[in-house]
Amino acid sequence: MQDLEQKTVLITGGSKGIGFGIAESLLAAGMRVAITSRSQEAADEAASKLQKIGKGEVIGIAADVRNLESQENAVSKLIDQWGQLDVVIANAGIGHFASIENLTSEQWQETIDTNLTGVFYSIKAGLEGLKSTKGYFITISSLAGTNFFANGSAYNASKFGVTGFSQAVMLDLRKYGIKVSTIMPGSVATYFNDHQPSEADAWKIQIEDLGQMVVDLLRMNPRTLPSKIEVRPTMPPNA
């Protein structure tokens, strides 16, 4: 089993939701965690909450995944702080859901820029650091990355893209000893798309479940690679 103590990770969109849950689990495992948000205030507030876990170290960084230079700066800050980059988790994402008749070009562009191009920028910014450590690149896709639905044209396009991109990158980078996995959750109890989690979400995947999954991936023997993982609630209400 791989030891995670003192290893470093950059988590995009880590100030809430899935990214925050993953950060909690990795800190509890003793990792050094940098979370990003477009707002420094949000990044600092989340880092302060995470620091109370008390085992690993955490910093908050303002960064926009839609900008390559911003992602490169985030990686540089992490390496300046801790000297190495072991894991990049491309988690930041948004959702605009509307019929193609009503979906605006601005909503389309923001979805693709954040959910797909942002993943590309994340690995481009972190690649040399991951080569140095034979690290791990994890993307957060979605079941919407293989299952299409009405009003989902922009979101489906972005997540289908992330799924395919991740699998191709996995083939590109394994010669360097870099592992690549994509996690594809179904319904998760988060603040995504302005949702407010409540007791009614108890049937959904919880953020700590995905955090534990990431810990398990990172601890797995390097000879084995779960490259694409679909995750569903065990018992949805309409089952």
Automatic annotation (TrEMBL):
<dbReference type="InterPro" id="IPR036291">
    <property type="entry name" value="NAD(P)-bd_dom_sf"/>
</dbReference>
<dbReference type="InterPro" id="IPR050259">
    <property type="entry name" value="SDR"/>
</dbReference>
<comment type="similarity">
    <text>Belongs to the short-chain dehydrogenases/reductases (SDR) family.</text>
</comment>
<dbReference type="Pfam" id="PF00106">
    <property type="entry name" value="adh_short"/>
</dbReference>
<protein>
    <submittedName>
        <fullName>SDR family oxidoreductase</fullName>
    </submittedName>
</protein>
<feature type="domain" description="Ketoreductase">
    <location>
        <begin position="7"/>
        <end position="189"/>
    </location>
</feature>
<dbReference type="InterPro" id="IPR057326">
    <property type="entry name" value="KR_dom"/>
</dbReference>
<dbReference type="InterPro" id="IPR002347">
    <property type="entry name" value="SDR_fam"/>
</dbReference>
<dbReference type="InterPro" id="IPR020904">
    <property type="entry name" value="Sc_DH/Rdtase_CS"/>
</dbReference>
